[in-house]
Structures are given as C-alpha cells and as structure tokens.
Amino acid sequence: MKGLILCGGRGTRLRPYSYSRPKHLLPVANRPVIAYVIDKMRQAGIREIGIVVPPYFRFQFEEVLGQYSGDVALSFIEQPEAKGLAHAVGMARDFIGNDPFLLFLGDNFYDGKLNELIERFRKEGPEALLLVSQVQNPSQFGVVEFKGSQIVRLWEKPKDPPSSYAIIGVYILTPKIFDVIDDLRPSARGEYELTDAIQGLIDKGYAVTASPCRSWWKDTGQPKDLLACNRQVLLNLQGEIRGSNVTIVSSMIQEPVVIETGAYIEDSVIRGPVSIGIGARIIRSYVGPFTSVGEGVHLVDAEIENSIVLNGSHVKKVSKRIDESIIGSEVQIEGSRGNPRSIRMNVGDHTTMFLPIEDE
C-alpha cells in the first residue's frame, strides 16, 4: 500500500501565516503539521508516499520535509492548478500504479493509529473505506448517508445533512477511483470533488464503507485549530527531553518539556507542557503551558502561554501576558517606556490583534 497526501490550496483562512509558506508546513509543537501525517503512515508500514503540491511551493516542501522522511521515500507531484481534491488525486495516477493507497488531506491532524483502518480494508476489500466522525456542524463537511453499514450517498457541505457523520480527510482507495475521476464534471463551485468521485464508485455498484473515528482529530484550517493541535501534541509529552549544549541558569523548569539543542534559559520560569526550539533564548521570562517556542526565538522580559511562536521572532519587554496567539516568523514585538505612550505597529494584510483596554 502506498500513501498519498494532498497539499493544494492557498490557505486563505490562515493568512497572514500562509502568505510565505504552505499551511501544511505551519508548526505544531515545532514540527510541521504534515510531518505528523508522514509519521502516521510510517508507523502503519507505508514506505512510499506521494505528496501533491502546487508548483510554487514545491521547493519549500522538498527542503523542509527532507529532514522528516527517514526511511520513507517521498515523491513530490505537482498540481498545476487547484481544481479540487479529485483532480489532485488524479495527478497521482502514475505514482499509485496498481496499488491501493491511503489518502490523507495534508492539513488534517489525526491523533490515532492507522493500522486498524488498513487491516479492516484488507479484510473487507471495498473499493473505498472512509474514516468518519460524528460532528455538531455536519453542514461544514462532506457527509455520508448510510444504509446499514454501506455508504449509499455522499454530500458535500449539505444545507440539510442526512446524517451527522462527517468525512474527516482520511481514506483508503483502490486505483478504480481514477476511472471515475476521468468521467467527472466540475461541481457548481468549479472543482472536481472527491465526494463526487467516491459517489461514482457507489453508482457503479462498488462497495464503499466507513470506519468510525475514535481518536482526536482536527482540520487545521484556522488559527484556533492550529493552537488546538499544538495543545493536543504537547499533552502527550512526558518528562524532560533535552538536546545538547542546553544552558539553564537560575530558572525553574516544570515538566513535561522539550528543550532542543543550543537553547539558553536564564532567570525564567518554564511551566510545561512546552516545546522550546533549537537555539532559542529565554531571559527573565515566563513560558506557560501549551506553548511552542520556535528555532532562534528570543523572549526577553516577556510572558506567554497557550501560543505558538515561529522561528526567528523576538519578543521583548512586553508588559502584558501574551495568550492564545500565533506569532509568525521573524516578527519583532517590543515594549517601550518612552513618551508619548502610544502604540506603534507595522501590520500586514489579514492580521488580527486584540489590545487590552485600560480601565480609567
């Protein structure tokens, strides 16, 4: 069995972070979201993975994911235009060949194991097996309609959902899906929908089944979702994992924490679960639970918790605690005691800021 990860789309709901990088490479506990997908496939015994990417981001994917591939062979497949999930799958026909394949949407986070899903597929032999989960807002997802254990209909974001079972972005498919994709027509929104392709299998009389999701999962399409995934990963930390050449001076470290190579911590409090990246410097600061501090980040006279700070950013002399925030890469945030006591900022497109209101 091969693996296929779809990484198309421009990630508009994750701007401004997705302007300079694909959303799938945004970090959760200092590792790209897609790295966790690769890990899950490796743990399930998959050693060949195709990654469908837009041409303008291919180099970034190759550069970043090389360090996470390990014993897995990664093949990068370009999708010249974003024409939908089924179109993206169709681009991988040559890579897949005659093998069944595990398909994963690259911006989804799944905290379970895939072995049980694969074993069920091999035992039952359907043409498609979908991982589904009951949700409170099914109209925002692809939804399945059942007759017994068989799926009889798929709906893409229906106004009146026939069930509360949503497709969560994990599938096992056979190469028969490509024959259906060849005959697909664009949907009302101009895309070739994967739900339509799987419906085509059903219409041809093939077995399409579902497996209930019993593990934590999240579509990381928005900043709040990325923070939720960061919390989930950090919850799984145990003890202290410390790299080489770590310096800790007059500081309190409360486990669980990951402190990577070359980090420097002085006169600070680190209260886990926390992940501190390579070469980070934390001085006279507080880093609270569920925070990921990226590579080369400087925190000086600052307090932060439940947040993600991307590589190379500097936060200095900030009088208020930063909470539930994502700070992009190479950002400078610095407090000032000079007059006038004004706020100065250079804020890019699609930025959101919440400033505390001082009571008079």
Automatic annotation (TrEMBL):
CDD domains: G1P_TT_long. Coiled coil: none annotated. Gene3D superfamilies: Hexapeptide repeat proteins, Spore Coat Polysaccharide Biosynthesis Protein SpsA, Chain A. One of its GO terms (molecular function) is transferase activity. Keywords: Transferase. InterPro entries: G1P_thy_trans_l (IPR005908), NTP_transferase_dom (IPR005835), Nucleotide-diphossugar_trans (IPR029044). Residues 2-233 form the Nucleotidyl transferase domain. Signal peptide: none annotated. This is Glucose-1-phosphate thymidylyltransferase. It comes from Effusibacillus lacus.
